[in-house]
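Re: the request from the purification team.
They wanted to know what the chain is likely to look like in 3D before they choose a buffer screen. I agreed to run a prediction and write the result into the notebook, where they can find it.
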Amino acid sequence: MNHSSSKLDPADVLAQAGGLADHLKRLGVQWLPQANANQVTALAEFFAFDDAIKTESNSFVQPAASESSANTPGASQRPAKPAKSTAAKSAASPAGGFQLSNDLGSGGGSYPGMPLSEQERVARLAADAEQVSSCLKCDVLAKCRTKTVYGEGSVTPRVVFFGEGPGRDEDISGRPFVGKAGQLLTKMIQACKFEREEVYIMNTVKCRPPNNRNPEATEIDNCREFFEAQLEVLRPEYIVCLGVVSAQALLRNKLSVGRMRGRFHSYFDSKVVVTYHPAYLLREPAAKKAAWTDLQMMLRDAGLL
């Protein structure tokens, strides 16, 4: 394959795929999918990074925009951008539907019950946030926390960003993603053509684990009723799982981020995107390109790219 070009040649892709197929047949593989030229062309277009895309992805590392004022506990009444029509989304998706494979989803089908009005969502989330603030299920976390961190943002979001757990800054402020990782998340959100207050941001566990360790399985299970109730109220079009903890908790598997990236999974009506946690991207800046590719997949499907 010619790596000097910014575009992938569909003929090269087909040739390499044919070589791989021959190799697999020699190894005894009995079944192989048939080549699809239209799908190869779509893949080539999808993975091509032109100058405009490169410029937009660089916004991840630009100086942070000023933070919006703190939202009310668990909610913001600013409405999200209106959802694109189904026809518009279909037109925006690459041919062949290769993005939409979902062999690892959890909780498929519609969310239970009827959607709540905006006012009902505000009231429900505020009541749940109050319940979380007095939760004593996790003895260790309840004793060491300063504040619980329920979540914040639009109550009618197209996108929910779903993280791992509060850090030191979040434990002090009671707000999700306000430290250095939160500043990077804000840039990622803005690169997606949203503002922080137009999405909803939440974590798997609502209390900071000691020394910022990963939440234990029992702690995630204790918080499951809270984050599942949040998602049932919000019913977003997309859920972006930031890191392996939230992805495994939501999709109920033990796969790595690398295994889950690159395709949509499902959680009831929501399409789930798995990407790297902003804290990981701060440690491994080279992974920002992969994270931007994950977000582009969502934006293309949403008709925003």
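For the purification team: The first helix runs from residue 10 to 26.
Please add any questions underneath this entry.
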